[in-house]
């Protein structure tokens, strides 16, 4: 009888110990977490997600907001204002409507001009305020109009009436950088290849 009890106890331990160890598995997998690989900053704490947000600088202290807005609600929402505590000011823009469960690409659908104390390579604190009263606070990277950004229109309301966009913006940025010796805006370097070497 004692032998049977010891066998039963050993069998119970063999069943309980692995079950206890394995109960820690299956929770909070890294693949269950949001991991957006993007050049900009992402903020998903509000009803409207701000994704890949960047400032595309066309010159020192001048640029536009790019990235995208994704509405998680069934009701429409809109981006009402963009502000900063770092001396960056948004120019006039109409509220940017984001339909319920909809998506807006700020690089192609709307222009939010920005001016102030920033240049390419820096990070700027921005507050995005929406129609529901939610404000998203972001540290936004400033990029120059080179490589993948050459196709983003850079015509700003404060700029000249003649629209400049695409490769001409990159050419202008390079010429301006060469004239002022501002390496921050130079597009002279070749875009890196996927292998890490210039092509």
Describe the protein's topology.
Layout lengths: L1 H21 L18 E3 L4 E12 L2 E10 L5 E7 L4 E3 L5 E3 L4 E3 L7 E4 L6 E8 L4 E9 L23 H14 L19
Parallel strand pairs: 2-10
Antiparallel strand pairs: 1-2, 2-3, 3-7, 3-8, 4-6, 4-9, 5-8, 9-10
Describe this structure in words.
With 199 residues, the chain is an alpha+beta fold. The chain has helices at residues 2-22, 167-180; strands at 41-43, 48-59, 62-71, 77-83, 88-90, 96-98, 103-105, 113-116, 123-130, 135-143. Strands 1, 2, 3, 4, 5, 6, 7, 8, 9 and 10 form a ten-stranded mixed β-sheet that branches.
Brief rundown of the structure:
The chain has helices at residues 2-22, 167-180, and strands at 41-43, 48-59, 62-71, 77-83, 88-90, 96-98, 103-105, 113-116, 123-130, 135-143. The protein has 199 residues and is α+β, with helices and mostly antiparallel strands.
Keywords summarizing the entry:
199 residues; alpha+beta; ten-stranded mixed beta sheet; 2 helices; 31% strand; elongated
State the end-to-end distance: 79 Å
The helix count comes to 2
| Radius of gyration using CA atoms only | 25 Å
Q: Determine the mean pLDDT.
A: 81
Shape: elongated
SSE topology string:
HEEEEEEEEEEH
- Which percent range describes the beta-strand content? 25-35%
Class per helix and strand makeup:
alpha+beta
């Amino acid at each position: 009888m004692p032998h049977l009890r010891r066998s039963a106890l050993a069998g119970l331990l063999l069943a309980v110990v692995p079950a206890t160890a394995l109960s820690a598995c299956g929770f909070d997998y890294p693949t269950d977490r949001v991991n957006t690989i993007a050049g900009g900053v992402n903020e998903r704490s509000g009803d409207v997600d701000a994704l890949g947000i960047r400032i595309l600088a066309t010159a020192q202290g001048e640029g536009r907001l790019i990235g995208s807005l994704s509405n998680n609600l069934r009701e429409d929402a809109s981006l009402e204002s963009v502000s900063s505590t770092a001396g960056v000011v948004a120019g006039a823009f109409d509220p940017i409507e984001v339909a319920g469960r909809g998506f807006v690409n700020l690089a192609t659908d709307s222009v939010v001009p920005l001016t102030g104390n920033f240049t390419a390579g820096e990070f700027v604190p921005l507050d995005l305020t929406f129609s529901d009263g939610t404000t998203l606070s972001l540290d936004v990277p400033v990029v120059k109009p080179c490589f993948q950004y050459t196709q983003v229109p850079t015509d700003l309301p404060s700029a000249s009436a003649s629209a400049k966009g695409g490769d001409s913006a990159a050419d202008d940025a390079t010429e301006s950088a060469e004239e002022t010796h501002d390496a921050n805006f130079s597009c002279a370097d070749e875009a890196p290849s996927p292998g890490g070497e210039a092509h």
